[in-house]
Structure formats: C-alpha cells, structure tokens
C-alpha cells in the first residue's frame, strides 16, 4: 500500500513493512526451539557391564600407491597401469572381502589416478579407502 506524504499526487512513498516478517520469523524460531527436543527419541538405558573382549580379527588391507612419476605400486611391487586391473582381479578372486588403501602423490597427474580408480571398480573391489594427510 502506498501513502502520500504531501499534497503532491506525483510523489508516492513505497516502503516495505518488515514487522510482520519479523513476527513470523520469531514464531517459527520459537516453534523450532520447542519441537527440536521432542524429535530426539533417545531412550535412556543403563547398559550392562561385561568383560572386555578382543576385537574381531581384521585382515591387512592391500596398499595401492601412485607416486609423483605416475608409477603404480601394489604392496611395494611396481606394476604398469595396464596390469593393475588384472592383478586386482586376481587378488579379489583370492579374497572377496579384500580391502584396498589407495594413496597417490599430490603432484601426480589426475588422469593416472582416474585410470587406477576405474581399474579398481572394474575389478569388483568395493572396500576402498582413499588415504590423505590431515591439514
């Protein structure tokens, strides 16, 4: 709605009244503050105490590395990029639950790493961890 501040019909003052907007936002804020604790359906349970047990035996993961020159290594054995898929298929056939740790040098060409990752996928390996350093 526009109001005129003077007798001049040509001057129209157009301002947006934000008070209703602020009122609605405050009501929504209060509604969220009230409903968030209700959404947490956690039930407090006193868990029984038991003797500690040994963790399940974890198999050692196979390490696949790509160095700065683009050379590919599987557990410190150098392979050609073309041979990676064949070697990974053999390792996967021997152990279907094979875990793989992929690490590459930060300066290596992305194309080499992409080829290695495609070979991992084609070999059928689903347990892959990409290793990085923390900042």
TrEMBL record:
Pfam families: ExbD. GO terms for cellular component: plasma membrane. GO terms for molecular function: transmembrane transporter activity. It is a single-pass type II membrane protein. GO terms for biological process: protein transport. InterPro entries: ExbD. The chain crosses the membrane at residues 20-39. Keywords: Cell inner membrane, Cell membrane, Membrane, Protein transport, Transmembrane, Transmembrane helix, Transport. It is found in: Cell inner membrane; Cell membrane. Belongs to the ExbD/TolR family. The accessory proteins ExbB and ExbD seem to form a complex with TonB. Involved in the TonB-dependent energy-dependent transport of various receptor-bound substrates. This is Biopolymer transport protein ExbD/TolR. It comes from Methylovorus glucosotrophus (strain SIP3-4). The lineage of its organism: Bacteria, Pseudomonadati, Pseudomonadota, Betaproteobacteria, Nitrosomonadales.
């Amino acid at each position: 709605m526009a109001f005129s501040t003077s007798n001049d019909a040509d001057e129209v003052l157009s301002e947006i009244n934000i008070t209703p907007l602020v009122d609605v936002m405050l009501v929504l804020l209060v509604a969220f503050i009230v409903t968030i604790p209700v959404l947490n359906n956690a039930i407090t349970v006193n868990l029984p105490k038991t003797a500690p047990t040994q963790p399940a035996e974890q198999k050692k993961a196979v390490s696949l590395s790509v160095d700065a020159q683009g050379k590919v290594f599987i557990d410190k054995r150098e392979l050609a990029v073309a041979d990676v898929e064949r070697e990974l298929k053999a390792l996967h056939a021997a152990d279907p639950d094979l875990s793989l740790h992929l690490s590459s040098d930060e300066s290596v060409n992305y194309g080499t790493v992409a080829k290695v990752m495609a070979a991992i996928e084609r070999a059928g390996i689903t347990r892959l961890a990409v290793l990085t350093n923390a900042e």
